[in-house]
Amino acid sequence: MVRHDKGRKVPDVNPLRSLILAAARNGSIRRVVATAPVSRDVVRRFVAGETTSDAVAVTRRLVEDGLTVTLDYLGEDTTDSAQAEHTVQSYLELLDRLHAEGLADRAEVSVKLSAVGQMLDEDLALENARRICRAAEAAGTTVTLDMEDHTTTDSTLRILGELRKTWPWVGAVIQSYLHRTLDDAERLAAEGSRVRLCKGAYKEPESVAYPEMTEVDKSYVRCANALLAGDGYPMFATHDPRLVRIIAERAEAHGRKPGSFEHQMLYGIRPEEQLRLAQQGHTVRVYVPYGEEWYGYLMRRMAERPANTTFFLRALLTRS
Ligand SMILES: Cc1cc2nc3c(=O)[nH]c(=O)nc-3n(C[C@H](O)[C@H](O)[C@H](O)COP(=O)(O)OP(=O)(O)OC[C@H]3O[C@@H](n4cnc5c(N)ncnc54)[C@H](O)[C@@H]3O)c2cc1C
Q1: CB-based contacts of 202: which residues, under 8 Å, 6+ apart?
Q2: Is the shortest distance between the CB of 199 and ligand 1 below 6 Å?
Q3: What is the phi-psi region of residue 102: left when phi exceeds 0, alpha when psi lies from -120 to 50, beta otherwise?
Q4: Is 147 annotated as a binding residue?
Q5: What residue segments make up the domains of the chain, in order of their start?
Q6: 146 is catalytic
Q7: 147 lines ligand 1 (CB under 6 A)
Q8: Ligand 1 close to Cβ of residue 144 (< 6 A)
Q9: Which one has a higher pLDDT value, 305 or 183?
Q10: CB of residue 197 inside a 6 A radius of ligand 1
Q11: Could you write out the DSSP letters of every residue in 102-155?
């Protein structure tokens, strides 16, 4: 089996993948990783911490640096309604704190529907997402629904549609690696519609996704053009310097001023670029994960796609 990466053919084996997944399941390795000073620093580079207070402290620091934030309480793929309820409660507590500490106008939340019950029952996920949206409205901020693997795309967009009937500001996410996404981008580019465009993080079959990175990048530009040409509010989630440059050119060509779209990057990845864009007058939103499930988050992200492993390893070596 051969996989294409950046247009080159490479064997479809990530030698680290099975090792990482085995490590993720091993309790003693988890304890070592969680407590060793070096790995603790590494984890802290990408994850705000385990508690609401950790998340709020990192948010405050980023806001003081001129950035905006979206917070993700870690814990996806829940097949347990008590765990889904715990996730909802964590978001409600966080939203309260953001409001109380005067950060809600600069910090919103990102929610994975699988963490609030989507795999158990779509109606449960919708009801739980409604509770989070109600709390976000009371706090004076917004919610974005993260997009997960392609088997959940239709369900997530259905829930988005329901939520937007009451809260039109609920943000959508689309992934340029999926063949379907240009259609979704055109449909979602309506007035007031907040849409995050990313490449996509899950390992997807060729029947639904472009196998070559060059095709994923071209699709990203096509979708970016569709969003910029529309009346919505595009949110460009990428660390890719070439795409950041292209977005600047295309935004200008579409007459988009800074503030009518935003850049988004992950916490700990290209922090100097985040500041540079913000200093140029752009809105830059940092995606900040936090919570006790950080170990699974880092390990799964690395194992899902070979590119993710190098993605995090590269971030450890460079700040710009
Ligand atoms: C804010 C945000 C939200 C996201 N939400 C979702 C979501 O809801 N669903 C989903 O499937 N995915 C999501 N993602 C992940 C996304 O789909 C990609 O997997 C991830 O961002 C990697 O793609 P990339 O565009 O950054 O560039 P890549 O294709 O990984 O890299 C392209 C180039 O960018 C530069 N670069 C990349 N990483 C680094 C680094 N660590 N350090 C220095 N330079 C680097 C390098 O020059 C590299 O060649 C999100 C990403 C972000 C930033």
Answers
A1: 148, 149, 150, 304, 305
A2: yes
A3: left
A4: yes
A5: 14-317
A6: yes
A7: yes
A8: no
A9: 183
A10: no
A11: T-TTTEEEEE-GGGGTTTT-HHHHHHHHHHHHHHHHHHT--EEE----GGGHHH
Pocket test of ligand 1: the residue of 170, 238, 246, 287 to mutate, having most ligand atoms within 8 Å of its CB, is: 238
Q: What does pTM read for this prediction?
A: 0.91
Q: What three-state secondary structure class fits 171?
A: strand
Q: What is the pLDDT of residues 198-226, one digit of tens each?
A: 999 998 999 999 999 999 999 999 999 99
At residue 39, the pLDDT reads 62
Q: Which residue is listed with tokens 């999926």? A: 178
238 in contact with ligand 1, CB cutoff 6 A: yes
Q: What is the CA radius of gyration of the chain?
A: 19
Q: State whether residue 211 is helix, strand or coil.
A: coil
Both tokens of residue 6?
């950046």
Whose alpha carbon is nearest atom 40 of ligand 1? 315
The token duo for 49 is 């911490």
Kindly give the distance from the C-alpha atom of residue 240 to the centroid of ligand 1, in angstroms, as a whole number.
7
The answer to whether the annotation marks 285 as part of a ligand binding site is no
Lowest mean pLDDT among 4-18, 99-113, 253-267: 4-18
CB within 8 Å of 309: residues ≥ 6 apart: 14, 16, 17, 20, 302, 303
Looking only at the bridges linking them, the beta strands covering 8-11 and 2-5 are antiparallel
Find out whether 280 is annotated in a ligand binding site. Answer: no
Find the catalytic residue in 97, 106, 194, 196.
196
**Tokens found for residue 3:** 């996989």
Instruction: Find tokens 């790995």 and name the residue.
Output: 39
- Count, in order, helices (H) and strands (E) of the chain: 13, 10
Architecture of domain 14-317: Alpha-Beta Barrel (3.20)
* 276 labelled catalytic: no
83 is in an annotated binding site: no
Helices 294-304 and 27-35, interaxial angle, to 10°? 110
% residues pLDDT > 90 (the chain): 73
Closest CA to 47 of 234, 300, 235: 300
Beta strands (DSSP E) in the chain are: 2-5, 8-11, 68-73, 107-111, 143-145, 172-175, 194-198, 233-237, 262-266, 283-290
